[in-house]
Amino acid sequence: MTQSVVRDDPALAGSHEALFSAREVNKTFGHGRRAVEAVKNVSFDLNKGQITTIVGESGSGKSTMARMVLGLLPITSGTMTFEDRDVTKLRGGARTAYWRDVQAVFQDPFSAFNQFFTVRRLLSRALRLLGDAEAGQAKMEEALNHVGLSGPDVLDRFPHQLSGGQRQRVMIARALMMSPTMLVADEATSMLDASLRVNVLNVLTDLRDQLGMTILFITHDIGQACYLADRVLVMEHGVMVEQGPTDKVIFDPQHEYTRRLLSDVPRLHD
Ligand SMILES: Nc1ncnc2c1ncn2[C@@H]1O[C@H](COP(=O)(O)OP(=O)(O)OP(=O)(O)O)[C@@H](O)[C@H]1O
Question: Are 97 and 113 contacting, i.e. CB atoms less than 8 angstroms apart?
Fold first, then answer.
C-alpha cells in the first residue's frame, strides 16, 4: 500500500481552525470484480480562510473527492464535517442549507452559460433561487466587483461578448452572491489560456484575502497548486500520498509521486 505523508508541524497543529474535515473517506463505484476504488481512506482538513488544493493526475480521484465534499455524491464510508456538523449524509432542507454555505465553480465556463442569457439574467436567476430578487442590481454589481468585473455594461453582455476568463469570473460572482463560507473550484481554470488563468487564480486569492473565504481548488497542474495554495494535498490512484503547507510540499517533497509531479514543472526549482 502507498505510504501517506502528512507534513504538518505538530507545533503548529491547532493554529488553524478546520472549517471542513474528512476522515477515512472511501468511495467505491460499482460492485464485485467491476468495483473501482476511486478514493481510499482519505483524511484531510480545509482550514478557515485558507486555499487548499488537491492535485493529482487524471483518474487520481480528485473530482470524486470534490463531488463528495459538495454533497453531490454519497460516500461509501468515513465521515465529513462542516463547522463541526456531520455532513456525511445530508438530505432535504439540511442539504439545501449546506449548498448555501458551500458553493461550486466547475471547469467549463462555456457550457454553464445559456448563450441567450445576458449576465444580468443569469445572475437574477441565482438571486431568485435565493428568494432575494429585491436586492437586485446592487447585489449583482457587488459580486461582479469582487471578481474585477466592474461597470454596468457587463450586466447586459451575452456570453459571446465575454472572454473565457471573464465568463469564469461571472460564474465565481454567481457563487459569491450566495454569500458562501466555502468555495469549491474543480479544474476551474483548465480551459483558460495562461494569462486568463492567472487572472482567475488572482481572483481566488483576493477572495481569501479580502473576504476570508475558505477555498478548495482542484487541479491536475501542480504549478497552479503551488501558485495559489496555502496547503497542498497530493492524490495518486485514490490515495492521498502527501499533504502539508505548500512550501514544505514543493521545496521538500517526501513522496516520490510528488517529486515526479514537480519534475514536470522545472520553473519551480529555478
Ligand atoms: N460514476 C463513476 N462510475 C464508475 N467509475 C467512476 C465514476 N466516476 C469516476 N470513476 C472512476 O474513479 C476514478 C477517479 O475518477 P475522478 O474523476 O475522480 O479522477 P480525477 O482525478 O478527477 O480525474 P480527471 O482529472 O481526469 O477528472 C477513475 O478511475 C474513474 O474512472
Answer: no
Q: Over pLDDT 90: what percentage of the chain?
A: 48
For residue 12, what is the DSSP state?
Answer: G
Atom 24, ligand 1: residue with shortest CA distance: 58
Q: Nearest 5°: phi and psi at 222? A: -65, -25
Selected from 1.10.10.400, 3.40.50.1260, 3.30.200.20, 3.40.50.300, the CATH number assigned to the domain covering 5-269 reads 3.40.50.300
Estimate the crossing angle of helix 136-146 against helix 164-176, to 10 degrees. Answer: 120
**Cβ of residue 35 lying under 6 Å from some atom of ligand 1:** no
**Atom number in ligand 1 closest to CA 220:** 25
Look up residue 98 and give its three cell numbers: 449546506
The three cell numbers of residue 163 are: 472572454
Nearest CA to ligand 1 atom 6: 29
The reported pTM is: 0.89
Is 224 close to ligand 1, i.e. is its CB under 6 Å away? Answer: no
Asked if ipTM goes beyond 0.90, one says yes
